[in-house]
Amino acid sequence: MESKYVSGRKIFKRVWFWMAVAVVVILCGVFYFIGSHTAKSELNGKKVSLEELVEEIEAREVLLGELKNKTESWTKEVADIQKELQEAEKEKNEALTIIENKSRTEEEMKELQKQMEKSNTELSDLTEEIKAKRAELAAAEGKIIEKKQEPKILPAGYFTVGKDLPVGRYKVVAQSGFGNFFVNSGSKVNIILGDSEIGVNEYVFYADEGDEIELTLTAKFIPVE
User: What's the number of CA atoms in the CB half-sphere (13 Å) around residue 211?
Assistant: First the structure.
């Protein structure tokens, strides 16, 4: 009895062993089937294999690296452009400063020009006043003030004021010797000019337009105030 029981148990164990083997084989087949069908995924709506998916990821990583390099290059270009803009802004501000300073300088020059013109006018008025005072002083002291104009030398002969001699006040001096000095036939001036007992060494008169001068000697006409 015991041998039959033992033999039955052995048969029962063998049956379960083969059933387990069958289950394992079935599960392996199932897993293989599932693996072969699930190894594909979707990419942009298309079924792709795992290898294709890996290749696509690698390609996109390459594109991402290139885009990163371009971004860095663009960032550098933007920084350079910003630097150029800053330099241009600086130059613009400097130009505006120069223009502002130039305008200010022009205004200062105009103001200085006005002051110079005013000073020149005041100086001219003061000069005329000094001349008048000197003339008054000279008249009071009996002195004659010579002008800085070039004297006019006339030889013996007949001359016309306004043609041969400019209109004005003159001091007449004999160059050498002595002789007659007449103006308008002696009606205005009638003297002996020069170094003589009856003559004078110099004579002051006002030469009017059209006066006729007669000289029998060479004389110097010195403009005076």
Answer: 20
CA atoms in the 13 A half-sphere facing the CB of 182: 11
Spatial distance between the Cα atoms of 205 and 124, rounded to a whole number of angstroms: 27
122-145 per-position pLDDT tens digit: 777 777 777 666 655 655 555 678
Provide mean pLDDT across the span 110-130: 79
pLDDT score at 75: 79
| Cα→Cα distances 101→108, 113, 175, Å | 10, 18, 63
Q: What is the CA radius of gyration of the chain?
A: 65
Three-state SS letters, 107-160: HHHHHHHHHHHHHHHHHHHHHHHHHHHHHHHHHHHCCCCECCCCCEEECCEEEE
pLDDT band with cut points at 50, 70 and 90 for residue 161: very high
Tell me the two tokens of residue 187.
Answer: 């009606």
